[in-house]
């Protein structure tokens, strides 16, 4: 697309982000250090990618989770929250544990989706080793198959407090 | 008996003591006694040089066997400067050698050769006539060849390196002989005094200039006469490498200064341009090869070639600007050349001694097999790190001050109406900037791969710190790099006195002032400012460290994978790979990829082997064809040698007839 | 003279320490708004920094003291660059020249510290980022030195304050073609050195495309905070340098409260304009393939070299 066409598209589109809903109440026992700024590292422990699409939508222009202080990062060393999706397969159980261990304190683990909570359609399959809570301590669960972006954003807002 | 005379005789006496110790003392204590005597000789040389630099005069005549004239030693200020450099490096290298040598390098031959080498290095700048100069030069060459051959029984590469070195050094000797002969014929005498009377614009002077500069350039390691450097310096024992790289190549620079500042000042414009061209090519080529080298000592050897290129560039700039009468920047350029000489001697000694320490502890020279040494060898790590900072010209080290002075002289030298100068100076600035950038990469690679992260091989994993003599020597050299960087004022005064430069001097605490171009630098003030800026950062860090201490974890983050190994780390080859792609045409690496398929199926791979060869292009495109040509000529000439006595008698008869005809003409 | 320079230096460091996170926040906000998002606000990087200081730093087995000393060296060198570059005023210390080569060397000290942190991480990503970062730094250095050299020719001095002051006194030199060529080259060099688009994407998650981010993957807590702050200070100082050279008006020549205030406001305005332009560029440009970056840098070098030769021809004509 040419430069002029791109500028025209930006101007005609304007703002895509929907107005922010009312802030939810904070997670009890959330660390005070994480108020207003939360870096999120996502781990796919064997999901069907349905939750990933919804997370992509949550950080996209319509829901824009970044405006509440949450940002996706590449390394768990930079992260405060580890967002885990999917049933934990045999091959991913150890990398999941290592990823959470590599995250500095204070840290939280969010299990997103029914599979991560152990009650999804793949629970008990031969490739699944268990739910996320069996391997690492989970601080917040986000139900749904897949959970809507608004619900995911809500969960993150409970951590940032914005 | 003046002080200088006493100093010169003291050096000779200490060397004789060292020779006696090397011959007489048994192997257990030989290193200590011979080494200590050589240290004394080095210190005596440095002191004598300082006296000569301060203006002391004295002449010593050493009788030598016929048919040579006696060796006349009478150092002037310039010679004194280089005597200090040679003496200091000799003393530090000998001290290091006491702890380092083992096996063949600790034999009587090696210690005797070392004693003679250090003496010759110190006396070459003190020679006052061409014959003495050449005698001492040859002594230097022969003793260094003997030292280089120390390990020849164990490694074949040593023999090949020594052959290349011997041939190139004698080629340079031949060129020097011819050059001095031309000058002596024109001046009517072999003393430097009578040579200085030759007019610099005559053809004899130009011919002599070219011959002498080529000869000195070969010794200094200037491209394209540098091919012995990357072969010889790595194969020599490390304290000898330090001597060769930090002191011996400086004799080439001393020769260039001798020719252009003392013997034939005021030459035509093309002299300066020749030096700038040689220096510029050498600087870029040297650092490019250093950036992609994986053998630690070969990298340091190419870095020497780069620095000598910068010294020739500085000298050439000084000559060029002087021939156009632009005095201030010319003085600054020649001062920069001398600052580079001293600065390079300091950091190159540190680097080679550190490399020797690594070799001694791990048995490895290949960077791809090192790693994690900073925890196991902290003193070596600190010394090598300081040397690497100096080589990369980062504040506040000797290399930084020297490169700053060079850039200032180039930038201010171009403020002129002269068209040639205003084209050459920006090109020179580009060359210096490019070499500075590549030097950064080369030394970050060397320090980072060798010392940081985890060991990539068995030798590095079982390394231990070096002995006391080696540590003291390394720390002395590293301290000199920092000292010359923090307090360059006295060094600049010495450089100004050595080359007769009126418009350079100290300023402030120990800063330097190039008043001819209005540029000054006080590194101590810069360091104070840096410390002031550092204070709030450190305060915050320390306060936080108490509240949130650092927690140790077992694994680095590698994607959470379960098969982390140190072999996944970047190696020196991979570090330089983007650069070797960018400069593909100039480096022409050869790559071999060998894929072994699995026995069952051609679609599965069992093993992949990657090999990269980076040869010196000058060697492969110029020297090898040249050597092949010589071989072919030799083979063709063998047809003259058919074994028939009749033919040989015929040759002698015709040769006699030809000489009689020529003589009668 | 010394106290005036000291006051100016302190003002510059403190102002930049406050402004750099705001600059990065502004750039992210501009990018967000152009993409139709609401954005986190200009203060978000400051919040991120505060949170990072409250997190514990981790040190893995096999890493060394470089992981803790490197970030501090980066921040200190970036702060020292803020002192040396004429951002708010052009008064220098008598014995510390804010000379071109001194400034570049201090900047490169920070570059080297960052590269060593990347190598010490002991992972393939860290080494990769470090190698690419140093290759780009090596290729950028000629452009930076030659372009500022080109700007120093009309003034006759390589001191940055003298160059800016000269451009302030002779406004015609600001719009001279030589000056514009050199400034374009310098801008490209600044983009490459600070790791912005199109040379490097600061918000990428793909490790194999990272240059700057790959070096900091192993750092956490206050180490990461210093690394981020150091990088932001470098960005702010270099953009401020380009702004001072491009539009020297507003720079203080004396240390009165009014002139300092005007200088700070002018600096804010220049950073806002340049930062927004960079951020807008990030929306319109795609990242260059790594092996095309040397071509970009070579092109910028040619511009800088043309600027130098052209300025000599102009002087002689």
What does this structure look like?
- The complex is a heterotrimer of chains A (162), B (665) and C (317).
- With 162 residues, chain A is α/β, with parallel strands linked by helices.
- Chain A has a single domain (35-160), classed as Rossmann fold.
- Helices cover 30% and strands 17% of the residues of chain A.
- Chain A has helices at residues 3-13, 50-58, 90-101, 114-117, 149-160; strands at 38-44, 70-72, 81-85, 88-89, 108-112, 128-130, 140-142.
- The mean pLDDT of chain A is 93.
- Chain B is built from 26 helices and eight strands.
- Chain B has helices at residues 3-24, 27-53, 77-100, 108-123, 130-148, 156-187, 192-195, 203-220, 229-235, 238-263, 269-292, 296-323, 327-362, 373-376, 378-391, 398-413, 419-451, 458-461, 468-486, 489-499, 523-547, 572-575, 577-582, 584-587, 617-637, 645-664; strands at 60-62, 71-73, 505-507, 511-514, 519-521, 551-553, 590-597, 605-613.
- In chain B, α9 (229-235) crosses α12, α10 (238-263) packs parallel to α12 and α15 (378-391) packs parallel to α19.
- Chain C has 317 residues and is an all-alpha fold.
- Chain C has one domain.
- Chain C has helices at residues 2-34, 44-53, 66-84, 100-120, 124-152, 160-169, 177-194, 212-215, 221-246, 257-284, 293-316; one strand at residues 58-60.
- The longest helix of chain C is centred in the N-terminal third of the chain and has 33 residues, at 2-34.
- The termini of chain C are far apart.
- Chains in contact: A-B, A-C, B-C.
- At the B-C interface, α16, α17, β5, α21 and β6 of B face β1, α3, α4, α5 and α9 of C.
């Amino acid at each position: 697309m040419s430069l002029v066409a791109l500028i025209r598209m930006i101007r005609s589109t304007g703002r895509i982000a929907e107005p922010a809903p009312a802030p939810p109440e904070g997670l009890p026992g959330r660390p005070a250090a994480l108020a207003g700024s939360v870096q999120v590292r996502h781990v796919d422990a064997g999901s069907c990618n349905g939750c990933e699409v919804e997370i992509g939508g949550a950080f996209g222009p319509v829901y824009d989770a970044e405006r509440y202080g949450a940002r996706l990062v590449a390394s768990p060393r930079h992260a405060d929250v580890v967002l885990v999706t999917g049933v934990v397969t045999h091959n991913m159980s150890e990398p999941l544990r290592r990823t959470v261990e590599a995250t500095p304190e204070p840290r939280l683990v969010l299990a997103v989706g029914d599979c991560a909570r152990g009650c999804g359609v793949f629970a008990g399959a031969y490739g699944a080793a268990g739910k996320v809570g069996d391997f690492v301590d989970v601080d917040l669960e986000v139900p749904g198959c897949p959970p809507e972006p608004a619900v995911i954003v809500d969960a993150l807002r409970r951590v940032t407090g914005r | 008996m003046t002080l200088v005379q006493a100093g010169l005789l003291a050096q000779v006496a200490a060397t004789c003591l060292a020779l006696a110790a090397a011959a007489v003392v048994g192997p257990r204590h030989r290193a200590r006694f011979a080494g200590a005597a050589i240290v004394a000789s080095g210190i005596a040389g440095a002191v004598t040089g300082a006296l000569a630099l301060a203006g002391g005069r004295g002449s010593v005549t050493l009788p030598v066997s016929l048919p040579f004239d006696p060796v006349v030693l009478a150092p002037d200020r310039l010679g004194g400067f280089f005597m200090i450099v040679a003496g200091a490096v000799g003393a530090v290298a000998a001290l290091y050698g006491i702890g380092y040598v083992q096996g063949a390098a600790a034999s009587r031959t090696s210690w005797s050769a070392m004693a003679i080498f250090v003496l010759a290095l110190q006396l070459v700048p003190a020679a006052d006539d061409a014959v003495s100069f050449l005698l001492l030069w040859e002594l230097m060459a022969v003793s260094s060849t003997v030292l280089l051959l120390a390990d020849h029984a164990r490694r074949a590469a040593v023999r090949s390196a020594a052959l290349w070195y011997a041939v190139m050094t004698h080629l340079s000797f031949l060129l020097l002989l011819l050059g001095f002969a031309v000058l002596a014929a024109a001046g009517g005498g072999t003393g430097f005094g009578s040579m200085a009377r030759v007019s610099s614009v005559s053809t004899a002077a130009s011919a002599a200039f070219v011959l002498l500069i080529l000869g000195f350039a070969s010794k200094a390691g200037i491209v394209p006469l540098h091919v012995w450097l990357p072969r010889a310096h790595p194969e020599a024992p490390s304290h000898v490498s330090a001597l060769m790289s930090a002191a011996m190549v400086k004799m080439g620079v001393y020769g260039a200064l001798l020719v252009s500042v003392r013997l034939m000042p005021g030459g035509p414009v093309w002299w300066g341009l020749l030096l700038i061209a040689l220096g510029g090519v050498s600087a870029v080529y040297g650092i490019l090869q250093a950036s992609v080298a994986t053998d630690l000592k070969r990298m340091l050897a190419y870095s020497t070639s780069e620095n000598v290129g910068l010294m020739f560039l500085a000298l050439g700039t000084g000559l060029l600007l002087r021939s156009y009468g632009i005095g201030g920047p010319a003085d600054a350029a020649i001062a920069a050349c001398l600052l580079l000489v001293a600065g390079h001697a300091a950091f190159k000694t540190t680097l080679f001694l550190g490399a020797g320490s690594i070799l001694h502890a791990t048995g490895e020279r290949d960077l791809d097999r090192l790693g994690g040494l900073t925890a196991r060898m902290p003193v070596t790590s600190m010394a090598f790190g300081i040397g690497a900072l100096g080589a990369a010209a980062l504040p506040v080290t000797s290399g930084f001050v020297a490169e700053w002075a060079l850039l200032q002289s180039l930038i201010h030298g171009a403020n002129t109406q002269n068209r040639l100068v205003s084209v050459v100076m920006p090109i020179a600035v580009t060359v210096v900037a490019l070499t500075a950038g590549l030097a950064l990469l080369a030394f970050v690679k060397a320090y980072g791969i060798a010392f940081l992260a985890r060991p990539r091989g068995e030798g590095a994993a079982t390394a231990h710190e070096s002995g006391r003599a080696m540590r003291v020597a390394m720390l002395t050299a590293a301290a000199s790099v920092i000292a010359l960087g923090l307090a360059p004022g006295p060094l600049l005064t010495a450089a100004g006195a050595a080359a007769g430069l009126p418009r350079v001097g100290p300023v402030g605490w120990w800063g330097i002032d190039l008043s001819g171009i209005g540029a000054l630098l006080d590194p101590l003030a810069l360091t104070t400012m840096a410390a002031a800026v550092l204070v709030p950062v450190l305060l915050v860090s320390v306060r936080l460290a108490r509240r949130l201490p650092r927690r140790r974890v077992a694994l680095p983050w590698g994607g959470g994978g379960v098969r982390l190994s140190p072999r996944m780390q970047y190696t020196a080859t991979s570090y330089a790979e983007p650069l070797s792609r960018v400069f593909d045409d100039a480096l022409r690496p050869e790559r071999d990829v060998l894929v072994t398929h699995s026995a069952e199926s051609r679609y599965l791979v069992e093993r992949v082997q990657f090999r990269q060869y980076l040869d010196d292009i000058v060697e492969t495109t110029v020297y090898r064809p040249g050597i092949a040509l010589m071989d072919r000529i030799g083979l063709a000439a063998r047809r003259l040698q058919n074994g028939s006595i009749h033919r040989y008698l015929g040759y002698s008869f015709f040769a006699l007839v030809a000489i009689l005809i020529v003589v009668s003409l | 003279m010394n106290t005036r320079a000291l006051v100016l230096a302190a003002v510059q460091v403190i102002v930049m320490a406050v402004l750099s996170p705001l600059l990065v926040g502004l750039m992210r906000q501009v990018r967000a708004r152009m993409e139709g998002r609401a954005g986190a606000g200009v203060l978000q990087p400051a919040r991120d920094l505060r949170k990072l200081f409250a997190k514990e730093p981790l040190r893995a087995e096999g890493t060394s003291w470089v992981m803790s000393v490197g970030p501090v060296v980066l921040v200190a060198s970036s702060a020292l660059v803020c002192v040396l570059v004429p951002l708010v005023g052009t008064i220098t210390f008598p014995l510390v020249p804010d000379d071109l080569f001194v400034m570049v060397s201090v900047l490169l000290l920070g570059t080297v510290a960052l590269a060593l942190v990347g190598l010490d991480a002991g992972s393939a990503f860290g080494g990769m980022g470090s190698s690419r970062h140093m290759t780009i730094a090596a290729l950028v250095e000629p452009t930076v030195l030659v372009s500022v050299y080109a700007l120093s020719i009309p003034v006759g001095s390589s001191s940055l304050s003298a160059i800016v002051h000269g451009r302030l006194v002779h406004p015609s030199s600001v719009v001279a073609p030589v000056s514009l060529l050199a400034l374009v080259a310098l801008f490209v060099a600044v983009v490459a050195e600070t790791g912005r688009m199109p040379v490097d994407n600061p918000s990428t998650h793909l490790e194999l495309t990272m240059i700057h981010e790959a070096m900091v993957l192993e750092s956490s807590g206050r180490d990461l905070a210093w690394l981020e702050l150091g990088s932001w200070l470098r960005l702010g100082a270099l953009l401020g340098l380009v702004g001072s050279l491009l539009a020297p008006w507003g720079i203080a020549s004396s240390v009165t409260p009014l002139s300092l205030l005007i200088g700070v406001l002018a600096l804010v305005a220049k950073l806002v304009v340049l930062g927004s332009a960079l951020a807008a560029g990030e929306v319109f440009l795609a990242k260059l393939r790594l092996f095309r970056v040397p071509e970009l840098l070579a092109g910028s070098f040619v511009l800088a070299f043309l600027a130098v030769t052209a300025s000599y021809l102009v002087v002689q004509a």
